[in-house]
Amino acid sequence: MNTAGPTAELSPATLEAQARQALEEGDLLAATNAAKSLVMQQRDAPQGYFLLGIAAEQAGQIDNAVLLLEAAAQRGPEAEHLAQLARLLSLLHRDGEAANVARKALVLDPSDARTLDTIGCVLTRIGDHEGAIAPFTSAVAIEPDNLDFRYNLAAAASFTGQVEAARENYEAILSTDPGNARAHYALAILSRQTAAANHVPRLRQVLTEASDPDDALRIRYALAKELEDLGDAEAFEHLSTANAQHKRALQYDFADDAAIFDAIEALFAGRDGKLFAGEGNPDGSPIFVTGMPRTGTTLVDRILSSHHHVASAGELQAMPVAVKRLAGTPSRKVIDAETVQASGDIEPQRIGEAYMAQAAPHRPSEGSRFIDKLPANFLYIGHIARALPNARIVCLRRNPLDTVWSNYKNLFASQSAYYAYSYDLMDTARYYARFARLMALWDRLFPGRVLQLSYEELVADQESQTRRLLDHCGLDWDEACLNFHESKAAVATPSAAQVRRPLNADAVGRWRAHEKTLAPICDWFEEQGIPTG
């Protein structure tokens, strides 16, 4: 595209077309020049400000982009402009504003598929999976051949329990793009595979054709999951290959996580938990369900949210974001040693108020009890205990070897720092050991604040452990909690298929199928004094 020469004499329609084309081509200078000329010609029209905002975003200037998109919205709201503004607000964890703006965009009845898909993605990010179904469905109806739009619809259908609709959309993707790794993995985890119904032959074939490392990673995970469902020990070979490659790509070093644990222990143990001055926020509505991933947090969330006084808000980033913002540290990581250290000087009430404000858009109704089931909140129990003294905290505990194996075999958000340890068995074992040590510290500093709930005991004696759970959370008995699997609420975790079935012991002791592989981990746990049961 020719970026030279004046543009001011061109018509607004031509300038807008030039700016959009330049954005598609990645020519930010040309896009900015055309958009500026458009603003100069039409200062009270929204299009120039919108296009300047998109150019600023692509240049990495997110805060400036938000201001420009807000200026566009003030000059006459258009669905496309509001949808993109909502997307940026959600990226900045301004969830309440993002939700409001996305819903305003939807009310404007957009007719272009990308805007509809963007609205659906924003609603998904804030946990409104049911609300995302309609815009995703409309986007696919307008552009049925857009595989990204169809994937988003399939994922939303899966989250909301529409398993067959999800399956049909994933298969439609694969009919057009047989090597689509995301669809293959999503199909593998959608339900338990059987000898009569599985995708193993197809997965073996597409694995031989996968040239992209990320595609091969997902396909190997899909293959491992299906092979484990079938009881085939070959599952470990695929996991080992995929995880080793991904760990190298991430350049993960356990020392990074160890530094965070060290900082937390130094901060809290050094002052016996008395580092904050003043009282916290007295709101008692939050129930924090924490623990290592894949230890039953989704199950307990489902049990509690079946209670008539409780609703699930999902896996919120509200506490990590609140602490990070108030700590004011410059790193891009939501948690690191510097942020932990700086958080010790924050008044507890400020943390509590910031948390409640961040969580508010995710609460199904004001005034009700709500569950925040971000597993990694176990790192923040010290902050929670002081900042929200009336909140209830539950931590799931599961057999160490089952915990290690289940973390190792599940593909979490592949670029998330929260789960970077999980691509190596020994790293995962080390992480478990530090988790267990930190939970012992919380028990010492805040006795009685955290209910450490055994997954195995819950499976073995559902009713008595459920009563114990409800009692800790200050809830009366509700028979519906025993029938959690009948709930129609959305589930957006790898446990979605399991929690839609009655409680069972299928996952207890599953590590034993790989006992020889896990023998070094078992020996290491014994050396650390961690019983493996």
Automatic annotation (TrEMBL):
One of its GO terms (molecular function) is protein-tyrosine sulfotransferase activity. Gene3D superfamilies: P-loop containing nucleotide triphosphate hydrolases (3.40.50.300), Tetratricopeptide repeat domain (1.25.40.10). TPR repeats lie at residues 113-146. Keywords: TPR repeat, Transferase. Pfam families: Sulfotransfer_3, TPR_19. The keyword Transferase applies. This is Sulfotransferase family protein. Signal peptide: none annotated. SMART domains: TPR. InterPro entries: P-loop_NTPase, TPR-like_helical_dom_sf, TPR_rpt, TPST-like. It comes from Alteraurantiacibacter aquimixticola.
